[in-house]
Design goal:
Number of helices: 6
Shape: globular
Oligomer: single chain
Largest sheet: 5 strands, mixed
Helix content: 40-55%
Number of strands: 8
Low-confidence stretches: none
Length: 183
């Protein structure tokens, strides 16, 4: 029997070191809600085996769904950067069309409602990619069909986006100060 545990933990258990000044939309909710402190940002905890396994499965499901969406005319995984005062916010959309985008969630549990962090990320992506709306979706099977169930919706608000970048700017300044204090 081949044991994949070590490879899985090496691949998903330890993330690349974060850079001061480079932030991802997928982490912005935690940053703006105080879940990630400057210390945590620079020293993230290692992930446990179950977390790594779920990430691995999620990556696979994302790729499978995106493969089908591309056939349907979506552009998958476009990347964009928004530059602030000494920082950059990096966003990747799971799937985009000109009039909307999709944020794909791949939990094994079918959710009725998207988590607030997923809707937040989708709303950030609306402004970054200049689309009026993003839907948070989850792949499911229903009566012999594979569907994307809408669990959330985010509408573009550039004023709200500006407020979030102000919060990010404050976090960035705290992080720079913290980074200088430990060097």
């Amino acid at each position: 029997m081949i044991d994949l545990t070590k490879a899985l933990l090496e691949r998903y258990g330890t993330r690349k070191p974060r850079e001061i000044g480079r932030y991802w939309t997928s982490e912005l909710y935690a940053v703006t809600h105080g879940w990630i402190t400057p210390k945590d940002f620079l020293n993230p905890p290692k992930k446990r085996l179950l977390q790594c396994f779920q990430m691995w499965q999620g990556v696979g499901k994302h790729k499978q769904v995106q493969e089908l969406l591309e056939v349907m005319g979506y552009v998958c995984e476009p990347k964009i950067e928004h530059h602030g005062d000494g920082w950059v916010l990096v966003g990747k959309a799971d799937a985009l069309r000109q009039d909307h985008g999709l944020e794909i969630k791949t939990s094994d549990i079918v959710h009725e409602k998207a988590h607030a962090s997923a809707v937040y990320q989708a709303k950030i992506l609306c402004s970054l990619f200049n689309v009026p709306v993003m839907y948070v979706v989850q792949p499911i099977t229903v009566e012999g069909h594979v569907k994307l169930k809408q669990t959330g919706i985010a509408k573009r608000s550039d004023d709200w986006f500006g407020e979030q970048t102000v919060k990010l700017d404050l976090f960035h300044k705290e992080l720079v100060h913290y980074g200088q204090s430990i060097s």
